[in-house]
Give the backbone structure.
Amino acid sequence: MGDELFDIPVIEKVGFSATVPHAVDPVKERVHYVTETQGGWGTVREVADAIRKAQKIGPYCT
């Protein structure tokens, strides 16, 4: 996860990337997922739950 220009090199190298709605546009254009939740209000949990749901594991796969 990243939201600023200096995060772009890493975002472009990882297999899955995410950001928050208030990220700068160049970051939002490069990530796989933009959270619905604002940063600091459960964004990491939202991403973790989305990954677990996609993998059909854990209690959040409904």
In short: The longest strand covers residues 18-19.
